[in-house]
Amino acid sequence: MALVTAVRRLAQVSLREYSRRSTAVQWGAWQAAERSFTTGTQPLRSDSKVTVHFINRDGEKITVKASPGDSLLDVVINEDLDFDGFGACEGTLACSTCHLIFDEEMYKKLGPVTDEEMDMLDLAYGLTETSRLGCQICLTKSLDGVVARVPESVADIRQTKDGSA
After folding, report:
1. Is the pTM of this model over 0.85?
2. Helices in 37-124 by DSSP H: which ranges?
3. According to DSSP H, which parts of the chain are helical?
4. 150 with 83: CB under 8 angstroms?
5. Parallel, antiparallel, or unpaired for β 146-149 and 61-66?
6. pLDDT, tens digit, for every residue of 52-77?
7. How does DSSP classify residue 151?
């Protein structure tokens, strides 16, 4: 009986000591975290944005600022640009409605075209040697000032033969 009592006391003392130590460690970690806590957001600065120029089907130039890492399709959607039929597959590489045309110099900066993108480009109206799909172009600082021309028509299977949706 004495042995059982001694083990219980030892367990209670060990448990209290463990609880006190872990609380102190947790409190210390919490205080350290509190001191170094930041929101993780930085103020939006225009120098961290990339300027993108779109030339719509009417020849109008539309200039927007976008974040590096966004695709050109994301930019069109986020800026609520009204390019009829643009991005029908929502960037899943299942259509060619986000077809854009670039000048030769900028086209070379865009990176390689995948086989899947080339397959979709084959379906695009007004295909040129410098055509790409906007959903496959991710913005980088080196693309600052890019000019993307929207073709005059789009191959959108959602439209009927008379052009209505």
Report:
1. no
2. 72-78, 104-109, 115-121
3. 2-36, 72-78, 104-109, 115-121
4. yes
5. unpaired
6. 999 999 999 999 999 999 999 999 99
7. P
